[in-house]
Design a protein that fits this description.
This protein is of the alpha/beta class and about 290 residues long. Strands 3-2-1-4-5-7-6 form a seven-stranded mixed β-sheet. It has helices at about 5-45, 60-70, 85-95, 135-145, 160-175, 180-195, 200-210, 230-240, 240-245, 250-265, and strands at about 55, 75-80, 100-105, 120-125, 145-155, 210-225, 275-285. The chain has a domain at about 5-160 and about 190-225 and about 275-285: 3-Layer(aba) Sandwich (Rossmann fold), CATH 3.40.50. Helix 1 (about 5-45) packs across helix 8. The structure holds S-adenosylmethionine. S-adenosylmethionine binds near residues 30 and 129.
Length: about 290
Amino acid sequence: MPARLEPTALKTHIRADYDAAAAAWGPEIGPRVFRVPAERLVADLAPRRGSRSLDLACGSGLVARALAARVGPDLVRACDLSPAQVAGARVALRSVGLDGIDVRVMDAERLRYTAGSFDIVACGFGLNHFPRPIVALRGALRVLAPGGRGGFSVWQPADHPIGRRLDERMAEVLDGRLADEYVRCAEAFARLGERNSEPHRLIGLMEEAGFRSVSSRAHAFTVDYRDAATFVNLVLGREDGALRAARLSHGERTALRHDLIRSLSRFGPRAYRVRRGFVVVIGQKPSA
Ligand SMILES: C[S@@+](CC[C@H](N)C(=O)[O-])C[C@H]1O[C@@H](n2cnc3c(N)ncnc32)[C@H](O)[C@@H]1O
């Protein structure tokens, strides 16, 4: 059993990882992979117009955007651990006329909002990143008003041929180039994701945190990665932290990109339409 990483060390790794991925997130990763789940999370929560709403672990702000369409832009707030993601969210929200949404750098395990200040807390694929999800859930409950609702989405495991092939090739290329500390953090991050994505465990955690009427709903949709070049660019954007940690030069990055595209070229167009599953868990703060 590997030694447990301190939450602070793990968060430092996660923040750096998402900082590095931010450039690709707003324009490419967000719209292609996270937009539909963000809209479904908010549809499941069905907030009424006028509900004060928080997008927790906002990334590029897709959940905030879906919330704003329903409750009105002035009532939405958003926060994320990664300063670069926060900067990206501000740009993305401004580009669609939503610059009134206040976006802050904040750790979900240490929320600084006033108690009872939201009717809705929506968190898209954040819970599987928090080293102590029960702390984050108690914090979400604290900032909710009595009767307010929290909704959390988590991915279900995915296993598809293009992902497997790309992971194998990336592992071969990066083998021996990443410092032990980076590998230890990346493995701990992956374990965290697996543990915190299990719907029954999440329902139990939400009840333990004090949420009531907790229920879950399974969703599936198709991510269209289009072709090998689009898929590789998207994954390399997401893995930019690893490429930086491995100190890949510009030339080596270009060679890696070509190598990956070549090794995926045997897959036909249907392989790039990938079915993904996720679960939305919703609970209510008891009325006072
Ligand atoms: C998979 S992304 C999802 C982004 C966005 N919610 C969406 O659905 O498009 C996960 C986000 O969680 C953020 N995050 C990770 N740990 C966090 C923490 N402790 N507190 C706040 N945000 C965190 C990351 O920086 C990243 O932006």
